[in-house]
């Protein structure tokens, strides 16, 4: 389990976390690809989600490299991996909050113009601040081997850095704490505004025996607004718990169960976003199913055609000869 200040990462933990990284990689890629393929999906909220997915994609790749390597020293690849994951992870916090701010301004303040004008600020903050912090940490030799004390094989803040806790806060934890506070407040305000508007609107229309189809979409949106902060906290809380246990000097931070949950939580954001905003979004889900069905039908047709061609070939006859004979017979029939 532990060796002094070093937390052992077992093979089973590596396998589980690598699988989580793979799911997040696929999920983030799917969000990005659907945005590129279907132009009518290129709305501002979906574009912000793509920027978040880029951060999650980088996080999944860098964490997977760290978990696969399980660094033991301050090697160059350890520092590079630690820098990339620090930048991507911090950027993910900022973009998650940015999306909540955008939705708050757009829905509660009812100002799309103001909400859209915030996009440049979101870019400057969500890419700029993590980049400045990461460059400063690397320049001051703060990023490196951390003995998996608050990680799962990957590199973060060096274990022997005197002001280690300060740099843990700057390179992730303080932004994580702020997200814990900000996201629930913003999404509660958004849900409250939607419920008030829905109640006010219902006064001017008769109550129907059967709910209209739009109500199901409203209910799904309402559930998503509840799930976004809940899922974020559920995924990230294990990392926070280990950080607090480190500050308290408790060996419980090295528990294999806690280490595994930490690894899954830190690497699952991309997969969770894909489930909520692609698989649980009916129009997108329908398009994906249609696309997959078309691809499968084409593959089956090609395989069947190839199989029929092989069955028609005589010994010593190749496919080109058969095609020539078919064309000759068709010409004769036409005459």
List the helices and strands and how they pair.
Elements: E1 2-3, E2 6-7, H1 11-37, H2 44-69, H3 76-108, H4 112-117, H5 119-139, E3 143-144, E4 156-157, H6 164-202, H7 213-248, H8 256-267, H9 269-279, H10 282-312, H11 319-334
Antiparallel strand pairs: 1-2, 3-4
Average predicted local confidence, pLDDT: 82
Helix coverage percent: over 70%
Question: What is the CATH superfamily label?
Answer: Rhodopsin 7-helix transmembrane proteins
* Strand adjacency order, main sheet: 1-2
CATH class category name: Mainly Alpha
Q: Helix/strand-derived class?
A: mainly alpha
Question: How many β-strand runs?
Answer: 4
Let me know the largest β-sheet: 2 strands, antiparallel
The N- to C-terminal Cα distance equals: 84 Å
Please identify, by name, the CATH architecture: Up-down Bundle
| Coarse shape | globular
At the third CATH level, what is the topology name? Rhopdopsin 7-helix transmembrane proteins
Counting DSSP H or I runs of 4 or more residues, the number of helices is 11
Following the backbone from N to C, one meets helices and strands in this order, namely EEHHHHHEEHHHHHH
């Amino acid at each position: 389990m532990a060796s002094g200040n070093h937390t052992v990462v077992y093979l089973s933990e590596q396998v589980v976390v690598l699988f989580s990284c793979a799911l997040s990689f696929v999920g983030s890629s799917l969000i990005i690809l659907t945005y590129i393929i279907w132009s009518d999906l290129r709305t501002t909220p979906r574009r912000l989600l793509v920027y978040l997915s880029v951060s999650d994609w980088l996080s999944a790749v860098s964490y997977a490299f760290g978990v696969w390597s399980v660094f033991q020293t301050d090697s160059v690849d350890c520092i590079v991996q630690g820098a990339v994951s620090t930048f991507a992870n911090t950027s993910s916090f900022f973009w998650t909050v940015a999306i909540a701010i955008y939705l708050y301004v757009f829905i509660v303040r009812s100002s799309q113009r103001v909400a859209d004008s915030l996009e440049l600020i979101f870019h400057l903050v969500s890419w700029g601040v993590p980049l400045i912090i990461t460059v400063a940490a690397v320049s001051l030799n703060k990023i490196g081997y951390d003995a998996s004390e608050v990680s799962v094989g990957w590199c973060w803040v060096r274990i022997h850095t005197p002001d280690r806790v300060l740099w843990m806060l700057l390179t992730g934890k303080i932004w994580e704490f702020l997200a814990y506070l900000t996201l629930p407040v913003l999404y509660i305000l958004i849900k409250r505004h939607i419920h008030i508007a829905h109640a006010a609107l219902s006064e001017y229309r008769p109550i129907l025996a059967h709910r209209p189809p739009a109500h199901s979409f409203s209910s799904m949106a309402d559930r998503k607004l509840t799930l976004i902060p809940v899922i974020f906290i559920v995924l990230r809380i294990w990392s926070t718990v280990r950080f607090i246990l480190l500050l308290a000097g408790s060996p419980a931070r090295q528990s294999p169960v806690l280490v595994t949950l930490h690894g899954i939580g830190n690497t699952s954001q991309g997969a969770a976003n894909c489930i909520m905003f692609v698989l649980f979004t009916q129009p997108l889900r329908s398009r994906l199913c249609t696309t997959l069905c078309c691809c499968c039908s084409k593959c089956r047709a090609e395989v069947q055609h190839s199989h029929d061609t092989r069955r028609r070939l005589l010994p010593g006859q190749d496919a080109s000869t058969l095609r020539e004979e078919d064309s000759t017979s068709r010409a004769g029939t036409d005459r």
